[in-house]
Amino acid sequence: MNFYHPPTDDMHFVLTRVLGAHQALQHLPAFAEVDEPLMQQVLIEAGKFVGEVVAPLQRVGDETGASWHEGAVTMPPGFRQAYQAFWQAGWPGLSARTEDGGQGLPGVLEAMLYEMLSGANHGWTMAPGLLHGAYECILHHASDELKTLYLAKIATGEWLATMCLTEPHAGSDLGLATTRAVPIGDGRHALSGTKIFISGGEHDLTDNIVHLVLARLPDAPPGPKGLSLFLVPKFYPDGTRSAVHCERIEEKMGLHGSPTCVMRFDAAASWLVGEPGRGLQAMIVMMNAARLHVALQGIGLLDAAWQKAHAYAQERRQMRAPGRASSSEAADRIAEHPAIARVLDTQRAWVDAGRVLAYQTAIELDRIRHGSPEEQNFAHTWCALVTPIMKSAFTHQAFHGGSDCLQVLGGHGYVREWGIEQIVRDARVTMIYEGTNEIQAIDLLVRKVLSDGGQRLGRVLDRVQSDQPVQRSASHARIATLRAVTRQIVEAAPRDAQLPYRVAEDFLRACALVLMEWAWWRIDAAVDLEQPLAAERWQAPSRALRQWVLPEFQMRTYIIVHQCTAA
């Protein structure tokens, strides 16, 4: 019960039977040879590594944690050895280009790997979590010289990377950042300032750390348009150490195995990445990749909490479940009690729907990289809208649903021995970093939907609706309602500038529920009812979705309509 078990069978079912990923990806020239057996083999081997190497370090990471002494950070016992085995086995480079030392496989396989890693050991997984985004950022924006020095090291994971955005006075509003970069000749800049909340800013997992830092040039205008992106490593190519210092690590509610650092840059020699004044545009590559990974963290953490609660409920015996005969051998298991079954089935409904949506989004990202212009166009639309929905909805559920899973264990859930209280503590930060969930909701409604009058959202809803048969009248009715409330917001917003900000969370939740219903239609259509055991696995969470999850849609849309009417 103390270890996370990678659910590779369920993941493979969603990937191949529900989404037909192998068929969809083989249409892309880059993945013509990526068939189902290959994808399954990668998934199985990834599951073995996660289950055997990373999962056993979960508790020591929390109880021992990362430690700071005179600017150096020592990671928990076993963390460095596990990470060295991780990158040397090629796992960080699954989707990186082969010419950069990667394996050139679909990004959806990387997404599945990070779901498992997050469920097994969220603290450890924070270290390689930014590698993919850093790789894409350097690949698309750095000079050839920087690519030669750093791209392969990042692609393979031999060196780790950070994303240095936040300052003590500049969090969600990065335009307030004051870190400075002054030209010092030979194409370099002296970088000075302090960044906070830097995951993995200092550690002993790798021999070098590559920092990507937002800063201002001397003549930069105020606000976000004045930010440029710079690269400064812990060690330069000649072996000298940069003037980058870890002043301390934060004492946190959770994620004790991941050092959250305060980093000071003392005129550290750095290189410009991309064009001056376009640092946020370059950094957005990292941020978008990170937001999908945070959604996957939510799915993995919720699944880990469900695994513990389910195992406990199968073993724990109390009073007989109502309506069950006393002669039933399992009648006194708490798993048979309706209140407990509701909790467990509801969380599984979220996890399963989350996998469908996350894997579909990862497939769309693969289409953006390798598809036709038409495929890329829709893929951009899907990812722009669905990513903030997933980040917000599934991190929210990881914490609140994880807390419900803890409740299943009663008092045992509240003590460390069972491990579920760590999952709840670790999950809480996912609602905050990489853009708070409130920011995700505003990004969705204000920046993505209202900016074009809901046209892009309409394209996504067209796709969702066309996938489902007309007989699913309840689903089609919800889609029609979502279209209607979107029009109401569009029409009412000019009369009340604050309206979209008040209802943004309700709107995002309504969108999430429509997408979840689509995901479960895909699952239901793929289940073989002639195999009773397989059908039983999926039927309970499918019922839970309809009984306990989808009714929230009516509440959220009622709130929106009421606010629009009052505007």
Give the N-to-C terminal Cα separation. Answer: 52 Å
Q: What form results from the Cα inertia axes?
A: globular
CATH level 3 topology of the domain at 8-145 = Butyryl-Coa Dehydrogenase, subunit A, domain 1
Give the helix level as a range of percent: 55-70%
Average pLDDT:
93
Structural class given helices, strands, pairing? Answer: alpha+beta
Beta-strand fraction estimate: 5-15%
Radius of gyration from CA coordinates: 24 Å
Largest sheet: 7 strands, mixed
Low-confidence spans: none
Instruction: Tell me what the CATH architecture of the domain at 8-145 is.
Output: Orthogonal Bundle
| CATH level-4 homologous superfamily of the domain at 8-145 | Acyl-CoA dehydrogenase/oxidase, N-terminal domain
Per DSSP, the total helix count is 20
Could you give a quick summary of the protein structure above?
With 567 residues, the protein is an alpha+beta fold. It has helices spanning 8-18, 21-26, 36-54, 58-63, 79-88, 107-120, 122-125, 131-141, 144-156, 279-315, 338-370, 373-408, 411-414, 420-428, 437-449, 455-467, 473-492, 499-526, 532-549, 552-566, and strands at residues 67-69, 72-74, 160-164, 180-185, 188-199, 209-216, 227-233, 244-249, 260-273. The relative contact order is 0.09.
Descriptive terms for the model:
single chain, 567 residues, alpha+beta, Butyryl-Coa Dehydrogenase, subunit A, domain 1, Butyryl-CoA Dehydrogenase, subunit A, domain 2, 7-stranded mixed β-sheet, two-stranded antiparallel ribbon, 20 helices, 56% helix, globular
